[in-house]
Design brief:
By secondary structure, the chain is α/β, with parallel strands linked by helices. 32% of the residues lie in helices and 22% in strands. The structure holds adenosine-5'-diphosphate and magnesium ion.
Amino acid sequence: MRIIAVINQKGGCGKTTVAVNLAAALGELEKKVLLVDMDPQSHASLSLDITGRVVDHTTYDLLRDPRVMVEDATCRYDDHLDVIPSSPVLGAVEQELAGKDARETRLASKLVRIEDRYDYVIIDSPPNVGLLTFNALMAAGEVVIPVDPSYFSLQGVGNLLETVELLENETKHRVTVSILVNNIEKRTNFSRDIVQELERLYGAELMEVTISHSVKYKVAALRGVPIFGIPRSDRLRWEFLTLARELEDRSSLIETADMGEWMEKLHGPRVASGRAIFSLDVPAAGSVYLTGEFNNWSRDGIRMEKDDDDGLWKIAVDLDPGEYEYRYIVDGVWIKDPRNVDSVLNEFGQENSLLIV
Ligand SMILES: Nc1ncnc2c1ncn2[C@@H]1O[C@H](COP(=O)(O)OP(=O)(O)O)[C@@H](O)[C@H]1O
Ligand SMILES: [Mg+2]
């Protein structure tokens, strides 16, 4: 499963247009695709006319509620494309999660659980680099940055690449970057100059295909269909199919198979096929035990082993589906999981970490 985040802090450069039509193009190539709308403005959902349908949960619930899983928030668009719609309340998430642990990996922790149900997950993101965009970046193995041909856009790309690099250095989570020129009037000299400049600055990252300017994209969004639902748009369809194929040929730095590994480091515990892998980063500790509802809060706990490769204390536990409160016992001291944002208050007024399998 490849996860591609479409990001750019600049509004109106074509993130939503690219996310929606790329998702549809991959569907045309018989791929199974999930489109995740991470913008409170919900333009991607609106572009596919999703909001009119009955939707139980949105990306807001997915990020906020530990019990809401990807499948609870997914709407079927057609045989190839599923969508997780957004809602205006998503804008409140940044404040609601302020100061909480692991808030940047909330989306990743949900996507890592669906393993290989999709070939591609495409994430549309809002026009700023806040918590929502960070969640998209942390979940993604690759990013596509749409750039509209203007002088200010060139500057913006530089800033955005710096931000991505900063995040990579901080989290050790790497992404493959592709820059896509969108909304270009191919015949004008100005457009050619801008593309040349982008080539000079970001030759390796720049995608070969460019997306033309066409009013049909607005028409499609208004009708609630991708460009593939608009008559006489062969050239535009061809461009998006070419984009999809070009991305297919570009390899991703990470796929979900590897995602679990870095997730372990950032957001414990990891759940995969009925097993929970607990890990704790306390290299100096002499002993670490795990205790919780799965062992009736045994005072002894389950002994964890230190992994010599990465210095993390780990244990894998087989668990039936359900909710489990737990804590770690580090050198005799009971603590909550510092990397799990989900917790509940226990009868002593302390926080127990919460794991949902
Ligand atoms: N290639 C294009 N040709 C014509 N209009 C476009 C193109 N790409 C985007 N637009 C239009 O520009 C506006 C902003 O695009 P959008 O995809 O919503 O950008 P963002 O999500 O980055 O804010 C929309 O009205 C959209 O229809
Ligand atoms: Mg948008």
